[in-house]
Every structure is written in structure tokens, then in C-alpha cells.
Specification:
With 321 residues, this protein is mainly alpha-helical. The chain is built from 16 helices and 2 strands. Helix 2 crosses helix 4 and helix 8 runs antiparallel to helix 9.
Length: 321
């Protein structure tokens, strides 16, 4: 079975613990992804293929398939590929907005092909996601993914409005994370199965994922994250590690983020780390994962599916430990 490129250990652990149906379905989703980005002209096709080949954790497709279960069929595979295409599209567009040179340690489409081509590539990926669902006539899945995509856009706009604003509150930050990250995890679970406990599980895991990602931006190192340490600070993005650290080091609220260069951003990261804020944010994320797993235990899933979904939740933590 051909696994997605650059499969990280937490995902490998779930695949290894599952029965044969899950790796087989993931392989089918990967084939659909390749087919979805092919045949759209040399220029767009090249950039879209490069985005796909850069790899990724494939956590969202895995959640779709696990929640659908072994009897999910072709519809779950299409939904798994569609949600990954939306995720890929948002990354390409984010890199344009952030003028990011690297993603997963590789040059971004924006860096190699320019902003205009990157925007077009992201648009292609979005369109192919909804085409996959429309071809199956699954109106419910189209509506779920459309709603999550709107939430992503709202979260991105909120992040742009908040850029360089050192007064951003913890509540505002968490609301932004729920829109920009947690809603797509929640959507992945609901694409697999309409279940209130799964909604809670996906939202909790997604929020934990974002908190831990923001911790990793401060702690690094670049060879692990695929981007420079303190990238969020350089972009003016206020995250929970900075908000939490400022409680112990109020002077951090006075840092002029506009004036930071790479070396100064690293120095601010060191100050954040020295306050113990990263450990406190990690603890918040661990609590979110624990609560998500409690919701899972209340679901009507078979023990095997609950066990594999719990492994995905644990993998989010392990990825950033």
C-alpha cells in the first residue's frame, strides 16, 4: 500500500494499529488527490502537483475515514480527498498573504511561481474539492465543507485585523483558532458521520492542534517546523504563548513587532520560553485532548473506532512533544 508522502510517526501509528481497510481507503483518497490536481494545464498542474507532493499529515482525511468506518464506501473517500484539497488551498493562500518562503521545509508556490500563480493554484484546489463532492451528489457534504470554508475565511480575516495588535485578548485568539483551524477538524469528523460527540471531539482536537502549532513556532527548531522560529511574531500574529507569557513578563506587551527582524524575533521567543508559558499552553492543549477523548467515549462507536480516533488525538500531542 502506498502511503501519503512524508507520513509523520503519529499517523503511521494509527495506520499500523488499524485493520487493512483504513490504509486501503487512505490510498484511494491519495489517488483521488493526484487525479484532482492533474490535467489543468501545465502551469497550474505543476504548481498544484508540487503542493500535493510536499506531503502533510493527512490528519483530516484520516478523521473522515475513521468516523465513516469500514462501511463508509466511495463517498467517504471523496470527502476525505475533498477536505485535504481545501486544507491545501488555504495553505497556498496563507503563504501568499504571509509572503512565506518555506512550507514544510520546501519553497512555497508563492516563492517559486509568484503570488498570482499561487492564488490561482489555491483557487484550483478549492474548486476541485467541491467538484469531487458534487460529482457524488452529496449535498450534505457540500454544505458541511462550504460552511467550514466560510469559517476559515472569517478566521483569516480576523487574524489579519488583529495583526500587530498587542492588546488581543485570549478569548479573541481562541475564537480565531476555532474558526481557522478547529472548524475544519470538526467538519472532517462530521463528513464521516453526523454525531454530536464527534463534533465535540473534532473541535477539541483541532483547537489543541492550533495551540501546539503556536507553541512550536516559538520553540522551533526550524529543521523540525520547516519555517523560521518566530515566524508568527514576524507576521504580527498574536498567539497564546505570547499572551500567556506577557502575564509573567509585562514588557512583552511593549515589544514593537513591526521592528522585529529574524534575530530579534528569536530573542523574543527566548523571553516567551523563559516565562514557562509554553508549558502552560501545552497543558491547555493536553486538557483539550483529554476532553475530546471523553466525548469520544460517550459516542456509540465500536471500541475499535474509538481506539483509533483516540490514537489520532494522542498523535496531535505527540507530534509537538
Amino acid at each position: 500500500m502506498t502511503r501519503p508522502s512524508s507520513v509523520p510517526p503519529p499517523v503511521t501509528a494509527v495506520l499500523d494499529a488499524s485493520s487493512r481497510w483504513l490504509p486501503a481507503r487512505l490510498a484511494e483518497a491519495e489517488e483521488l488527490l493526484r487525479a484532482a490536481v492533474a490535467g489543468h494545464g501545465e502551469t497550474l498542474g505543476e504548481d498544484a502537483a508540487a503542493t500535493l507532493e510536499a506531503g502533510g499529515k493527512r490528519l483530516r482525511p484520516m478523521l473522515v475515514l475513521l468516523c465513516a468506518g469500514p462501511d463508509g464506501g466511495e463517498g467517504s473517500v471523496r470527502a476525505a480527498a475533498a477536505i485535504e484539497l481545501v486544507h491545501m488551498a488555504t495553505l497556498v493562500h496563507d503563504d501568499v498573504l504571509d509572503d512565506a518562503p518555506l512550507r514544510r521545509g520546501l519553497p512555497t508556490v508563492a516563492a517559486t511561481s509568484g503570488a498570482a500563480r499561487a492564488v490561482a493554484t489555491g483557487d484550483l484546489l478549492f474548486s476541485r474539492a467541491f467538484a469531487l463532492l458534487a460529482e457524488s451528489g452529496d449535498a450534505r457534504s457540500v454544505a458541511l465543507l462550504a460552511d467550514a470554508s466560510v469559517a476559515l475565511a472569517r478566521g483569516e480575516l480576523a487574524q489579519r485585523r488583529d495583526a500587530f495588535d498587542r492588546a488581543v485578548s485570549e478569548e479573541r485568539y481562541l475564537d480565531r483558532c476555532r474558526l481557522k483551524t478547529a472548524r475544519l477538524f470538526e467538519c472532517a469528523c462530521l463528513l464521516g458521520r453526523d454525531d454530536a460527540e464527534l463534533r465535540e471531539f473534532g473541535a477539541g482536537v483541532g483547537l489543541a492542534f492550533q495551540l501546539l502549532d503556536d507553541v512550536l513556532d516559538v520553540s522551533g527548531p526550524p529543521e523540525r517546523t520547516g519555517k523560521a522560529r518566530g515566524t508568527d511574531l514576524l507576521d504580527g500574529t498574536i498567539t497564546l504563548p505570547l499572551i500567556e507569557a506577557a502575564k509573567s513578563d509585562p514588557g512583552l506587551r511593549e515589544v514593537d513587532l513591526h521592528a522585529l527582524d529574524a534575530a530579534a524575533a528569536e530573542a523574543v521567543c527566548d523571553r516567551i520560553e523563559a516565562t514557562g508559558a509554553l508549558e502552560r499552553v501545552r497543558a491547555r492543549a493536553l486538557q483539550l485532548v483529554a476532553e475530546a477523548k471523553q466525548a469520544l467515549e460517550r459516542s456509540s462507536f465500536e471500541p475499535e473506532q474509538r481506539r483509533l480516533l483516540a490514537l489520532v488525538a494522542d498523535g496531535v500531542v505527540q507530534r509537538y512533544s
